[in-house]
Amino acid sequence: MILSRLTARPIPLITGLLIALALPWAIYPPVALDIACWALFAAAVDLLLGHTGLLPFGHAAFWGGSAYVTGLIALHAGLPFPVAVLGGAATAALLAVPIGYLSARLRGIYFAMVTLAFAQVVYFAVNQWRGLTGGENGLQGIPRHFFGLDLSDPFFFYYAGLPLVLAGLFAAWRITRSPFGRVLTAVRDNPARAQALGYPVARYKLLAFVLSAGLSGLAGGLFAIGHGFASLDDVYWTTSGQVVMMVVLGGIGTLWGGTLGAALIVELNDYLATAGFQEIGLVTGTIFVIIVLVFRRGLWGTVHDLLPTPAPHRTPRRPASEGA
Amino acid sequence: MLQQAFNGLVGGAFYALLALGLSVIFGMLRVVNFAHGSFYMLGAFGAYVLLDSLGLNFWVALVTVPLLLGAAGMLVERVFVRRLTRLDPLYGFLFTFGLALILQDAVKHRYGVQSQPYPRPSALSGSLDLGLFDYPAYQVFVLAVSLLTCAATWLILTRTRVGTIVRAATERPELTRALGIDVGRWVAPVFGFGVALAGLAGVLAAPMRAVNPLMGADLIITVFAVVVIGGLGSIFGSVTAGFAIGLITALGDLYVPALSQTLVFVVMAAVLLWRPAGLFGREEAAL
To answer: What is the structure's pLDDT at A122?
Structure first.
């Protein structure tokens, strides 16, 4: 069943896989890994923003929280890096339970503000707990154990980490296509009706939140291993904002659009940093403002509209009130 | 202890001014202005620039900077935000987030991240005898200005014709329009007014807090928590919650210093459990 669906549209799938495999040949390998991590992070956020109709503005808590936990596991337990990353992802999902429980009672803009506020608590906690997290210095020298294999070359590490990212992306894709994902769409489009049909809306939102946090944690943990350190930036609200920016840039509700957005923003950041330009927010902020003002369907959505044959089972995009 | 409580009220004065601006804007436009912290920062920088390059003192800044920022806010509303108000409110939030990044990094680009000095106005450099303890006159002044501004805003909203229109448009925009009132005319002034309040808070902050591009970035998130506690869109709730959170934070600083920054968010979580729409909010927030 799953396989038949996958093979129903083989060309985009194979193209995507080939691009993912060829990426470290085309660009600087550490940047390729950054793109992969942010792509998964963006897909995780789109699960909420595009498919559940919730704008999470505090996902840095899960990405960064997992980065620290992953780093601590790798540093102190000496376990293979995928185990450390999974440990980080599990912690992120666990952390999402209380945060999600409190935030999922709200909707729209309130949800965004409250998740942002809770993420700030995580930021303060990481900042205060210096003995464990290193405070402003961050967690440094995170090793990449993998059964004695030498993964210090970022080129090889990209291929070691890619399966985790692909598994995460596959999970996100499966969730949106599952009966569970269909209910989430109903919750997005008409929460009152979904509730009336007997679906416990709050519980569905909570589960979506936890799954999204877990996938964000997967991405953040791998990111920390890839860089060899976890820093306060990972848990700061600019990170939460950046991932939302990637999703909006790629196209809300398109799932793969976030990958595109991630690639563009990471490349842009890398380019500006190499050029010695410090105030990246000037550029990314401008792009973001333009996208929100005139280009709301995002890159993927716009391209998709230009293609002659629309996909058979594409769900309507989220801003139902647009132009109303 | 009592002195610390007073410190808390002074801190609360800033929260209240910022939360009030956010709430007024949200009530009319349904937009949560993420750039509010950046306008606060611009207020402080405005005062600094007036003094540094034009030699204009604090009192001039206190009047002109909020007016200028208010005008800039009206322009931003007319040119940009207006295009988004009919869409999902999330787009307004995202737009102002982008705007906040631009404003913050533009100032950073020009002035760097180090803090700029700003002297206290000489008339307020001493301290006042408050009976139980001596207190810096400037802090008393900040508290007074904030209280007066909040009271004035309250009076404008409840006692004038403009205020009545704004309140009506906040509660029932369609109905107000149907009564022949041009609601659209008042949107930009309300946005500008909210921005001007942020600017005023910024000017007041310049002599007592570090003037740097990042000064609004963390503050805005605390203010978000404040308006969530008070009830977004509720003027009374925002101001009350602002002062209350200032007090709680200051007293928390005294007893549990490690937790003082997170205390406001703990209060927010508790309020959410009990009343998802905030203490004085309407139920629209909750599911």
So the answer is: 93
* B residues 28..47 contacting A (CB < 8 A): 30, 32
The CB density around residue A235, as the number of other CB atoms within 10 Å, is 29
Q: Which of A46, A110, A190 to mutate to test the interface with B (most CBs of B within 10 A)?
A: A110
Residue A254 forms part of a structural domain: no
* Residue in chain B nearest A193 by alpha carbon: B287
Which residue range forms the structural domain that includes residue A36?
Answer: 29-236
Which chain A residue lies closest to B281 (C-alpha atoms)? A110
* Chain A residues touching residue B225 (CB < 8 angstroms): 113, 117
With a CB-CB cutoff of 8 Å, which residues 216-275 of chain B face chain A? 217-218, 221-222, 224-225, 227-228, 232, 258, 261-262, 265-266, 268-269, 272-273
* Residue B242 · residue B226 · CB < 8 Å: yes
User: What averages of pLDDT result for each successive group of 10 residues across chain A (324 residues)?
Assistant: 57 82 84 93 94 91 95 88 93 95 83 90 89 82 77 83 92 91 89 88 92 96 92 91 91 87 90 84 88 83 69 48 36
Inter-chain residue contact A319 with B89, CB threshold 8 Å: no
Determine whether the interchain pair B265/A117 forms a contact, defined as Cβ–Cβ distance below 8 Å: yes
The chain-wide mean pLDDT, for chain B, equals: 86
pTM of the model as a whole: 0.88
Which residue bears the tokens 């109709």? Answer: A53
Alpha carbons B33 and B92: distance in angstroms, whole number: 7
Q: CB neighbours of A310 closer than 8 A, spacing ≥ 6?
A: A304
What are the domain boundaries of chain B? 2-120+133-213
User: In whole angstroms, what separates CA A16 from the centre of its chain?
Assistant: 18
Backbone angles phi, psi at B134, to 5 degrees: -85, 145
Residue A8 lies in a domain: no
Q: What are the backbone dihedrals phi and psi of residue B180, each rounded to the nearest 5 degrees, phi first? A: 85, 15
Give contacts of A103 with chain B, Cβ < 8 Å. Answer: 272
Helix (H) / strand (E) element for B181: namely none
- Rounded to a whole number of angstroms, the distance from the CA of A109 to the nearest CA of chain B is 6
Within 8 A of A111 by CB-CB distance, chain B residues are: none
- Cα dist. B25→A47, A162, B69 in Å? 30, 45, 14
∠B123-B129-B132 over CA atoms, to 5°?
155
| Interchain contact, A285 vs B99, CB within 8 Å | yes
- B258 φ, ψ (degrees, to nearest 5): -65, -25
Q: Give the whole-angstrom CA distance, residue B69 versus residue B75.
A: 10
Confidence grade of residue B282 (pLDDT, cut at 50, 70, 90):
low
Q: What value, to the nearest 5°, has the Cα angle with vertex A38 and ends A33 and A40? A: 100
Contacts with B245 from chain A: Cβ below 8 Å: none
Distances (CA, A) of A207 to A62, A98, A148: 15, 12, 37
B contact test, residue of A121, A130, A268 with most B CBs within 10 A? A121
With 80 as the cut, is the pLDDT of residue B25 above it?
yes
Residue A175 lies in a domain: yes
ipTM score of the complex?
0.85
In a domain, A143, yes or no: yes
Number of structural domains chain A divides into: 1
pLDDT at position B116: 85
Q: Do B86 and A324 touch (CB under 8 A)?
A: yes
Single-letter code of the amino acid located at A253: G
Q: Is the dihedral of CA A101, B224, B261, B154 positive or negative?
A: negative
